[in-house]
What we know:
This protein has helices at 24-40, 54-63, 80-84, 92-96, 106-111, 135-141, 151-164, 177-201, 209-225, 235-243, 257-262, 300-310, 313-323, 339-350, 366-382, 385-397; strands at residues 5-8, 14-19, 45-50, 70-73, 113-114, 117-118, 121-127, 130-134, 170-171, 249-252, 272-276, 286-293. The chain has two domains: 5-127 and 287-350, Periplasmic binding protein-like II (D-Maltodextrin-Binding Protein, domain 2), CATH 3.40.190.10; 130-283 and 365-397, D-Maltodextrin-Binding Protein, domain 2. The protein has 16 helices and twelve strands. Helix 8 (177-201) packs across helix 15.
Amino acid sequence: MSRSSSARGGTGGGVELLHRLVGGDGGAALEALLDGFEQRHPDVSLGDVTDENLSLEVKSRILKENPPDVWIEWPGKNLKPYDDASVLGDVSTVWESGTMERNYLDGPKEAARFEGTYRAVPINIHRINNLFYNVSQVEAVGVDPASLDSPRALAEELRRIGEETDCLGMLFPMKNPWTVLQMWETVLLGEHGLDTYVGVTDESASAHRRAVADALDIVRQYGEAAPEDKLYTSLTDANARFTRGESVFFHQGDWAAGEYADADGFGYRDDWDHVPFPGTDGLYAMNMDSVVSAAETENPEAVSTFLGYVGSADGQKRFNQKKGSIPPRTDVDTDAFTPFLQDQQTAFQRSRDQPLSITHGLGVRPAQLIELKTAMSTFVSTWDVDAVADEVVAAFDARA
């Protein structure tokens, strides 16, 4: 069940958790995590409070010198303003005292620390660089998804499908600018490689302006191949249309597959499947949530106990099985997960790098993310590659 405010178990020092996971898979995942914690640590009382405007509430309470003990946030550069203000707790002891540190890959570890100090505990991972496809339709149009070796090759294939067949190559929802930004960052990664991607996100975008513009041009080509109602189509609508067989391909994070599992007659591998987005094989582009703590809490031992459970194999198994995501720990038993998520976990463990998502706040600061979404809104209304490339570069190179 989800709740706006509650306390659970324990008579010792308490922990207040602030979050926005209410209802749906997020609420179920949090409930499973908290149930597991209560079973393992009945002596620690835990109260959780929900707030839809989480970031605003956390900042307000910090300014009032009454921060929550712990809260759920995107890690990476999304946390940089908090780190700059010295309001995040040092959770290095939690990482180093048990088996956590050796069972996380470098990508999640880097997202959790600043200048060598751990400030967060990642709890789940969603992969964003998936290219889903309809099995019967790829056979009908004569394309092998695994043979597409770059985003530009996919654009050329979509053009061919549109010219030579009656099938729709790819749905591309644009009602919300984040889906366009996510497509752009995935194209940038696939077409120009990890070094360029990291260079752009590390505030040297001006040195890579040509790549920024080229990725925008490829996204424009995807837009040309998309249905005419693309500007008014939401992710939910597009995902439902994909399950009804209305397109050959669909790019989205792995959260989209939750709907496929619930769709009648739409079975994994038989009716739908996926490959890494062209050009990104071996890379696991990540969106994730983490738990962070305030620099000053009344019950530091209880907070450390809770963070230790969040980072444990048991806690992450409980949370991710309900969330439809994979655990950032590599030693979690995923036998009870869906076959798709088991495949995602295998790909994660075999990945050579785990770049941090731009769209979901890990690879950019909050102010930069706002500017990037604004740029994408301009892009889908004008399709002016050069002008929007300038906006994107300016957003990345801003020091705010």
